What we know:
Elements: H1 2-8, H2 32-39, H3 53-66
Amino acid sequence: MQAVGQWIRRDRLKNVPFPEPYSFVAGGVWLWGDVNEWLRVGKHADEQRYPGWIDVAEVNTWLATRQGLVRTL
């Protein structure tokens, strides 16, 4: 956990900044997809690909559109 705190504060791996939080609730919440992509720099990532914040935004927009919450042009 100490290493993660150093990554977040950019005390370590300054040349590869840690991803921005998806939400600042409870001090910060990150999407595993963003963190996993960041870990690829050090070759410590999972082999799987996970959704990042752009993917989440696209799915949320699609769901809202399907529910009639967003009008399409």
